[in-house]
Amino acid sequence: MQVKKGNRTNTARIAILGGGNAGRGLAGYMSLHGLDVALYNRTFENVRGIMDRGGLDVYGVIEGYAQIPLVTSNMARAIRNREILIVTVPAQAHGFFAHKMAPYLDDGQLVLLMPGRTGGALEFAHIIESYPNTQNILLGEAQTFSFVSRTTGTSSVKVSKIKNLVRVSAFPASASREFLKRLGDLPLTLELANDVMETGLNNVGAMLHPTPTILCAGLLESRRGGYNHYRDAISESVGRLIERMDAERVNVASQFSPYPMTLLEWLEDTYDAEGNSLRECIQSIDAYDGVGSPKSLQHRYVLEDIPTGLVPISNLG
Amino acid sequence: MQVKKGNRTNTARIAILGGGNAGRGLAGYMSLHGLDVALYNRTFENVRGIMDRGGLDVYGVIEGYAQIPLVTSNMARAIRNREILIVTVPAQAHGFFAHKMAPYLDDGQLVLLMPGRTGGALEFAHIIESYPNTQNILLGEAQTFSFVSRTTGTSSVKVSKIKNLVRVSAFPASASREFLKRLGDLPLTLELANDVMETGLNNVGAMLHPTPTILCAGLLESRRGGYNHYRDAISESVGRLIERMDAERVNVASQFSPYPMTLLEWLEDTYDAEGNSLRECIQSIDAYDGVGSPKSLQHRYVLEDIPTGLVPISNLG
Fold it and tell me: Hey, are the CB atoms on A237 and B217 less than 8 Å from each other?
């Protein structure tokens, strides 16, 4: 079952929770597609420029000025009367957002963690279920984020790629069809995964982010970055190591999910990547050109993807 | 007990076995101090330039033209009638050299592995003891190499540092005093270690080489080096990790040796290094300025220092 983006009436009122690289790209894109978008960020200073400008200047594969009517660090205001709430923060912040959102959630609201990393929806559900008002929330997660996007200024964002396809699942999985149907209001190409074990264990960030970062830690730190994460840090040997890790991940995933997917298959699906090795595939993906390196090890490639990716996958293994 | 370099009659005939960065530096230095030096290299092509020139042009903390009367890849010729044989090859080649040298060893010859890494003299002794002509060989190892030196051309070498002090031990240790007395003919500052467990477990190469190399593997490989091994690759975090590894090494060493030495103590002893962290100490050592990075992972910093350093230390632990 697949929902194609295309001509539909975009009347949904949505909230994007998180105003970083991902949230800005998604907010800009949704607004340019006619949706009424609220943008929440925990630290208001970081999104003040968007409020001052009244929206975002979007560059890249989509371009234009995207109006954002509500920019706020007040959670109640951000999600009130919004049908779809998309959480676009590093997974280690899911707990904080669950606690912050729970008191204000309303019957019928849909919460999508984008992405969930490994176990995001499980953690989120565990936290909000103790609140009495969350019995009729549709909760789910995406396997990955739909874009490659980067902040380029205080009120601008570059979207360098819209991924071909992203898999989503509700938790519990019995709600997945309704979940996907509701997401059909959004201009994204989504496909139903079997369950959150599938979205969670096909965690490509955990494969692509921490290993190349750590295997460049010395120069990353002493030179404060200055290289391209995908193009430079994933050398032949680093790529082979990731392929070996990925084979272990697929082995774990196959115990929990009927549809484990290798990283190379995912790159082909998502980016039309071509090549016989991970390095070759990565080099064939133009969207990765603009993705610079972390400037320190205090970065989500380490702080997010190890505890919410490698550790739970390894523990399940 | 310490032997100071200084005014002595340098009449020894020595052989340097290995014509790489280390062997060239040592051969040039010894020749400039008046010793009769033979230089052996397994692959003759790599030292042909030295034979053609008749010696080495030495730059750095010592300078001059150093005559090398014999340059050869014939082991019998290299070591015949030489009193002191110094093996200056990566430790994974010790086995090859032991087999190659053993048939030609003569009563009274002294073999110094410089350095022995972890277990070098043990491996060397184990191999040569099956030869009947090796009963009166004085065998031992140095904890580290006496210089920082790098090849700069087909017949030239730069010696950027002569280390303050290097510890040596014979195997068995009962021969150490005679061993050190014989080495007194050489213009090096040597000090007696307790035994080869002390020289072998105070393996500083195993601490300083592989970790920074692997933690720069991505950029090292995709850019084929282009950075300074000590100054750039040992960043704050990499330095802290090495200090943690070093504490484990010292813990292992303390089970076998009365005099374990931390890496920071060794840097202070050897280079007069100053600083509160490994990174600070490294940055204070001018001799490390000129030490570039490996250009691939097929390098002794990985191929030597893991199997002949980290693995045996870890196994002993």
Answer: yes
Domains in chain A, please, with CATH?
Answer: 8-201 (3.40.50.720), 204-316 (1.10.1040.10)
User: Which residue in A has a C-alpha nearest to residue B221's C-alpha?
Assistant: A235
Q: Are B205 and B120 in contact (CB under 8 A)?
A: no
What's the rounded Cα separation, in Å, for the pair B242 and B261?
14
Looking from the CA of A121 toward its CB, the CA atoms found within 13 Å total 30
- The lowest-confidence range among A161-170, A245-254, B49-58, B69-78 is A161-170
What tokens were used for B113? 């592995």
Give the strand order in the sheet containing B36-40: B2-3, B190-192, B166-170, B138-142, B110-113, B84-87, B13-17, B36-40, B70-72
Cα–Cα dist B290/A133, whole Å: 66
**Tens digits of per-residue pLDDT, B223-246?**
999 999 999 999 999 999 999 999
User: What DSSP string runs through B93-143?
Assistant: GHHHHHHHHGGG--TT-EEEESS-TTTHHHHHHHHHTTSGGGTT-EEEEES
Whether A215 contacts chain B with CB within 8 A: yes
Residue partners of A88: CB distance under 8 A and separation at least 6:
A16, A17, A18, A20, A22, A23, A26, A114, A145
Chain B hits for A219, Cβ within 8 Å: 216, 219, 227, 232-233, 235
d(CA A144, CA A62): 20
pLDDT, tens digit only, all 317 positions of chain A: 344 444 445 578 999 999 999 999 999 999 999 999 999 999 999 999 999 999 999 999 999 999 999 999 999 999 999 999 999 999 999 999 999 999 999 999 999 999 999 999 999 999 999 999 999 999 999 999 999 999 999 999 999 999 888 999 999 999 999 999 999 989 999 999 999 999 999 999 999 999 999 999 999 999 999 999 999 999 999 999 999 999 999 999 999 988 899 999 999 988 999 999 999 999 999 989 878 999 999 999 999 999 999 999 999 99
Kindly list the residues from chain B whose CB atom is less than 8 angstroms away from the CB atom of residue A222: 231-235
CA neighbor of A17 nearest in space, from A97, A81, A82 = A97
Under a CB-based contact definition with an 8 Å cutoff, are residues B156 and B115 in contact?
no
For residues A98-111, one letter each, b for 16 or more C-beta atoms within 10 angstroms of the residue's C-beta and e for the rest, the string is bebbbebbeeebbb
Say whether pLDDT at B274 is over 50: yes
Does the beta carbon of A232 lie under 8 angstroms from any beta carbon of chain B?
Answer: yes
- Interface predicted TM-score (ipTM) of this complex, two decimals: 0.81
Q: Is B63's Cβ below 8 Å from some Cβ in A?
A: no
Q: Are the C-beta atoms of A205 and A309 separated by less than 8 Å?
A: yes
Side-chain half-sphere exposure of A287, counting CA atoms within 13 A: 20
A86 interfaces chain B, CB cutoff of 8 Å: no
Name beta bridge partners: A58: A64, A157
Residue that is written with structure tokens 């070498």 in the block: B157
Which amino acid type is present at position B40? Y
Nearest alpha carbon to residue A278 among A193, A227, A211, A224 = A211
Q: Which residue has the tokens 């691939």?
A: B296
